[in-house]
Fold this sequence. Notes:
The structure is a homodimer.
Chain A: H1 3-11, H2 27-49, H3 54-60, H4 65-72, H5 80-89, H6 94-102
Chain A binds a DNA duplex through α3 and α4.
Amino acid sequence: MLQSKKKKLEAKGWQVGSTSDFLKLSPEEEAYIELKLALCNKLKQLRTKNHLTQNDVAKLINSSQSRVAKMEAGDPSVSIDLVIKTLLSTGATNKDLAKVIASTA
Amino acid sequence: MLQSKKKKLEAKGWQVGSTSDFLKLSPEEEAYIELKLALCNKLKQLRTKNHLTQNDVAKLINSSQSRVAKMEAGDPSVSIDLVIKTLLSTGATNKDLAKVIASTA
DNA sequence: TTACAATATATCATATTTGACATAATCTAT
DNA sequence: ATAGATTATGTCAAATATGATATATTGTAA
């Protein structure tokens, strides 16, 4: 199973085994998850590029290291709102976000 | 006071009088609100373009007319997640969303 | 006008998201 | 290898978002 597909499914909150696929995503669900994961990946990329720890970012947004880790992992328990707020607090502009989303399949 | 500014403040959940300004938004807050309102406006635009009522859209996403109204109004009680999901269910693509966000100040 | 459809606004019980915390796993020098 | 730093994962009470409902307001045709 492709890792990218696995992450998508996990972001939906499903437990995904390593041997079989049995979940069909609608195009909207697919687009939503792609978008979310793209933003999550951008966050990690931006943070590391700026030599910040997850704790550094957490303090920037008055949150905790564990929540930043969950954001970067695309955990189902984090909202796109939080990811966007964090990206903006880490130096991204709306145009940066637009680029990330545009690059989505 | 500019109407655009008023809507931004209201989206932050503040009560804004018509005669005075006393709230400063950080650049991130400003960007976040601009982004959210741009998506909300796009939703209304897309819905009317497609000759759908708020009730129609509500059924598409298993929600209610009142919540769709709140989305379009940029109400503080609605998440960007919900707005994005709704846009995707109303026919927008990720690229459409990217364009909307890119057009943000 | 008046009746009717569409939209706006308020409230609320329920559901989801949140920061915090504990602790495990992983990396990175020495 | 060992210590210290960083990141990952699980849990939970509190905060926030949600659909539903009621009702008010606005639009729109007759």
